[in-house]
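Let us practice reading a record.
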Amino acid sequence: MSSLILGPLGTIGHYILTPLYYAISGLLLAWHWLFSRIGMDPAGGAAWGLSIIGLTLVVRAALIPLFVKQIKASRNMQLIQPKVKELQKKYGHDRERLAQETMKLYKDSGTNPFASCLPIILQMPIFLALFRLIDQAAKHGTAHGFMTEAQAQQFGDAKLFGKIPLAASFTDSQGIVAVQVIAAILVLAMTATTFTTQRQLMAKNMPADALTGPYAQQQKLLLYVLPVVFAVGGIAFPIGVLLYWTTSNLWTMGQQFYVIRNNPAPGTEAARLKAERDAKKAAAHGDEGGSVAGDETAGTTQPTDAPPESDRRPAQRQQPKRQSKSQRQSKPAGGQGKAGGGAGKSAGGQNKPAGGSGKSGARSPSGNQRSQNDRRNGKQQ
């Protein structure tokens, strides 16, 4: 009976894993060829271990579009949480209607509640294919994908530091204590990175109103359940698989830290911290701009003793006084008679006669002027 059930499942698994065997073995052999070319021992554990890490980086880089969808779906789930709560209050007595209205809300907002699990779900077949690739190469020398039997045997026998087989695990340490130590360190690292990744998402990139409700319960479940699952299952994983999963978790943690820091969800603690950083940067740029402007204008400031702009206006032109004909005739040819640099005028503005009380230091009239004065005086007498 069991063979009848496992037969179709085995066939389905074969059709799923066969393309993955070719993809994984092709990437693995490409990295192994590169490390062999730079001088590493092709049969050594370092070349094969670094090839597994290189494979992980390529896989995670290919999953970046799905990670972006995961971030968008997670934010949409956070933003619609107030509406979900309203539906719970309105249809809490009718679970069927509540489920219908909630799914309608997800559809209208373009939100997929399972999108946050996509990177993990899609990595599971890759993880399983790599597990079987290492396990069967080590135990049976079986080649999959682009691997030859010689390469599979070499891969299965590869040892880190010449002592730790990549195919060994914590539960199957082959009597080597170092295997258990390395496996325990990698399992702890894998568990800690999983917990830290989920924790920083909930602590910094979820608004306060999204920390309650079904979505929050789902996140809390992942926060505590996933590390336990990895810790329990990790003790049976080969060292090569632990290298893959720990590297993948480190990538996820760093990638999420970058997104939360530079593009946080609105209304979250991360958004508040980013606003503070942006304000400090803007203030710093403003101070630099003000100091530069002050330096440029420092050499163009006016001296303190310079008169103000209003005092530098030209003096108003004084209109000449109207004079009689005799006054105009009494003027010398070169202009008014000046006494010591000043005009020789009386208080009424007329020139003083020769016998008058002119200003001290005034010049004596010329000959023409004296004759005119004498004739004028004679007529007056």
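A brief commentary: The first strand starts at residue 159 and ends at 160.
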